[in-house]
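Two records follow; treat each independently.
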Amino acid sequence: MTNELISPLSGLRRLIETNQMEASDVDFINNKDAVWSPHNKIINVTPGPAFGSELVTQFSSNQTRGMRGPGVAKFFATVREEYGKMVDLQEGGKALFYTGSGTSATEAAAGSCRTPDEENSDKKVIVTMEIGCFSNAMGNCVENLGRGVIRLEGELGDDLPLDKCKAVLEKDTDHNIKMVMAPHNETGAGVTTNPKRIRDLLHELNHPALVVIDGISSIGSMPCSMKDMGIDMLVGCSQKGIMGTPGIGMITLSPKAVQRIQESGQQMKDAGLKKGQHYLNLGKMIEAMDTLGLHIETPSNYAQFAVALDSIAIEGIDRVCDRHRECSEVYRAAVQAAGFDLVAKDLSTASNAVTAIKAPKGHGEKDIQEVLHIMYFKHAVEAAAIPGYPDMGWRLCATGGIQPQHALMASIAFLKAADEAGLPIDSEKGITAASKKYAKVVQYHRPLPGIDVYGR
């Protein structure tokens, strides 16, 4: 019987009476007691949209500026400039935002610097280094744009295949290759790379190719300096380490990249050829920003993005990166002590944003999904599998606003769920290790004056 205290005006009574709010029908929950828990908050340790900033949540009702109003160009430019400072954009470079996601920014990068000699040609003009699902997607993006690409695949869990890249570039004596694309943090495998090694390789070979880096899960999660790493194009998104809401794909361009984009655009124009892209054309976006300072089309919510940048500024980017590392240390302590292996083959490249965990031998997709379902429906913790490799394992992530407290709770939920799913691990040993690591990294919190977790 419905509790008469539930207001019929809220719509909740109708949902309950018509059985639209039943317990889950997932197989493993059958015959297990479920309780109503309308106050539950899910702890989100998926790669994204990540656990957001509390400030962004509180200010999420802020209306974005209109796209053509007075002073809006200055506001947009200021937000982009502040973001450029965060990623240490080279002087004279450009920070561009697309309404979309990291994928839109990746496609903008992958389609850029097209020149007339590519028309009706099988020239290879882009190299992609692929070490997991998301860097594979980067290669797919280039391929689907119809550009000549050399796809260098590494083993899942390994670092970038730089030896293969060197061999390819050494043979490219005519310098047809315009870009080398790679991930800074491979979100699918939990491996962090060093883009500076790509820049050093190009310097060693005196090769003019641009370094194009996917920073989608690294920006705001770990140190990422375009200057120090020699990056020419850095792709990002608003909903991971930035702690914002989805909707913005960012791409920052070094002065060299800006020049190459403009030169190639002029060559295509002189040859009477189409540029290959409309909305995602970097040349058009640079021109729009340099003239009116406005977007080509409707902008995304700069107001929320500005609050996300403020969140990072208040905490301090160094502390933000330390926090991600500390959370990942809790994860690693938990799973390794319990008997799991990491996907990352070398601990020195294990990511501080994404901890990828191998399923025990003989336990595949069915068990992986059962663990995720137990975590979600019993422990109110949402984690993720490893995309593209259904039998590989799980990912526990530290991108965004996750604190060590959340990492400890997520570790306990993961190990208890694995235990209940019948995996051959020692959950108690893992929980003890996670607790000890948590005790070492946890710090006292200083809430913002005047604002508590309820926004008061």
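The next record belongs to a different protein.
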Amino acid sequence: MLQLGKLSIGIGDRFAHQAKAQLNAFVQAAEQGVDVVPVWNKSNREHLTIGSEPRSVREAADVAVKELSWTKPFHVDADHIRLDTVDRFIPHSDFFTIDVADSIGQLAGANAVQAFVNRHPELAGRLEIPGIDQPFETTRATVEQIAARYLLAVQDAGKIYRRIAEAKGAAPFITEVSMDETDNPQTPPELLVILAAISDEQIPAQTIAPKFSGRFNKGVDYAGDAGRFETEFQQDLAVIGFAISKYNLPDNLKLSVHSGSDKFSIYAPIQRSLSRFNAGVHLKTAGTTWLEELIGLAEAGGEGLALSKEIYREAIAHVDELCAPYAAVIDIAREKLPTATEVDAWTSEQYVAALRHEPNCPAFNPHLRQLLHVGYKIAAKMGRRYLQMLESCSEAVSRNVTTNLYERHIKPLFL
């Protein structure tokens, strides 16, 4: 089995121009003695929006690895794939994020639920999990309720896993199971049931993405109680450690935090938790690199700034269309968005200050940042014109991409 390293970050590169700049951040971490594994990820939805193919992610990663003489592990993630979308990714990916959120809450069938509960009598009763102070008391009825909610989703994950395994043959790959896009955070007993079901399906999951409390909005900080998050995160780590030994799951199974970019207020709690449990984590990011491209263009001035303003002008003109697919992961107050006329009059410094994620900067505007985060469709429609501007302003763009990933993400999490 291909093994994922202890610390890893999923890095999106929507326009396939920043792989080298992204990898430079991991080079800097390695120079400080910390190995963080880069995992380039791109979802089917993003490919459809950009008009790209999964092979482009592999090609960009391979070029960056060669140019920087990177000899450490790296991976390419088929992000949020399902049974109807996985096939196009199989030849080009060695990491698969299996998304079964749509199956959560759908009944697997009474017989399947009863069979699961019969196989796992240990899940009912007093659950004492090392690392969690208070035991949990469950009943058979409790386990039945949990299984009724999650069993079909895990079974669907098993179908997708076996589809990949059959197509890959002897080629090894990494499997993640994504359970985060649901309404409520999973409790420790729920996560334990899910992991027992994953074991039953013989899915060698190396990461699992549960739902945490609070809001994980795109491109901005965590919105919620950081203390509650830390408790949940540590309980999940404890459950994973318990389940590894109980259900013969991979020794390196770890948590995956989706929409993890820019969640600055929970990076210290994550770091403390990893230290306490000697655990690893996979932090998944995506659109933050696209925003650093915009910052780089604006910082370059001239035509780069003009294009950045044009993108905002188009984004605010199509705000409903852009926001609709991301309604669950953005919170934008329309009245706090500057008008296109206002932005047209901005200097480079004003545009950068409004967009760059520095929460203590008075000019920072999280509403503008979230709108532009989902506004990559505007740049995609520009096609070659946008890509040529990235190339013309490559120095400013790549510098911002590297700095953001290293200084704002890798350092506070792992150094």
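Discussion point: The mean pLDDT is 97. How would you locate this feature using only the token line?
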